[in-house]
Write a structure and sequence with these properties.
Layout lengths: L2 H31 L31 E10 L3 H14 L3 E11 L5 E12 L3 H9 L4 E11 L1 H27 L3 H33 E12 L1 H5 L3 H53 L5
Parallel strand pairs: 1-5
Antiparallel strand pairs: 1-4, 2-3, 3-5
Helix pairs in contact: 1-4, 4-5
Length: 292
């Protein structure tokens, strides 16, 4: 009675083993087939294509590189510069990620008005956008350009996705032949794990495609206002400041007088008053005639 069920489980285990073996073979095969085909001789290559390696064999084309840039530009009109950057991103087929404007005051009274704008443009327009940003202000105080090559990771993700797809097909074919409920549940569990790996790898691949197709540029546009310029030459403000200074001086004089009285009063009572009395007594004695 139990022999058919045992044979069914034995066949299922054998099928799973065969599926795993085939999947491993396809992983190896995919790893070798994942490399892009070399560009044809005489054909126009993209700017991302790499030259021939020292051995004479063409290197991988269609490199996946994440390019970013961060610049600090000084200008007299940061708000207008921010509007030009937004128009630049739109003209190049990109978009503005964020824009932030702030004002800070130094200890000496000088002010700094700065605007930070982050925008993304297609990789093909990256260099041209950088040139436009450099010419935006009077001076570029700092610049940082980076590039991260993720070609190897991208190729590995494609190979993993193909291998997992092949394994998924194997599990689906086994699921069609499964009859016992435990066997069906076991295959469905493995199938869910494979599909989870596929979704994770595809999500990472989409992220790399987005990061490598659009470059990110961060621009800090600043205007420095000197202390004299920040205070302004207003007559009313000068009058108010003069009146405030006069009040402060008057209060200081009154406070000084009060403190002087507070200090001199005890001195007068203890020293000056007895001295005056002694002088008066001495004068009276001298003015009194002596009897002969």
């Amino acid at each position: 009675m139990h022999l058919p069920r045992a044979l069914s489980r034995w066949h299922l285990a054998l099928a799973l083993l065969c599926a795993l073996t085939c999947a491993c073979q396809k992983v190896d095969r995919s790893a070798h087939e994942a490399k892009p085909e070399p560009a044809a001789a005489g054909a126009g290559q993209s700017p991302a294509a790499s030259p021939l390696d020292p051995g004479g064999s063409p290197a991988d084309t269609a490199r996946r590189i994440i390019r970013t840039a961060e610049l600090s530009v000084e200008t007299d009109a940061p708000e207008a510069a921010a509007r030009k950057l937004a128009a630049l991103a739109d003209a190049k087929g990109g978009f503005v990620v964020s824009s932030d404007t702030g004002r800070t005051t130094d200890a000496d009274g000088a002010e700094t008005v700065s605007t930070t704008i982050v925008f993304r443009v297609p990789v093909a327009a990256f260099d041209e956008a950088l040139a436009t940003v450099r010419a935006l202000g009077s001076r570029v105080s700092s610049e940082k350009v980076t590039g991260q090559d993720v070609t190897e990771e991208y190729v590995d993700l494609e190979a993993r996705i193909r291998a997992q797809r092949a394994l998924e097909e194997q599990y689906l074919s086994i699921l069609k032949d499964a009859r016992a409920i435990p066997d069906v549940l076991a295959v469905q569990q493995k199938l869910g794990e494979v599909r989870t790996e596929i979704e994770r790898a595809e999500g990472r691949r989409r992220l790399l495609e987005n990061e490598t197709s659009l470059s990110t540029i961060t621009v800090h546009v600043a205007r420095h206002i000197a202390a004299v310029e920040a205070s302004g030459p207003g007559f009313g403000r000068s009058v108010r400041e003069a009146g405030h200074d006069s009040v402060v001086v008057a209060i200081a004089i009154v406070n000084g007088a009060i403190r002087a009285v507070g200090v001199l009063l005890p001195v007068g009572l203890l020293v000056v008053a007895p001295a005056v009395l002694l002088v008066r007594v001495w004068r009276r004695r001298r003015s009194t005639p002596r009897l002969v």
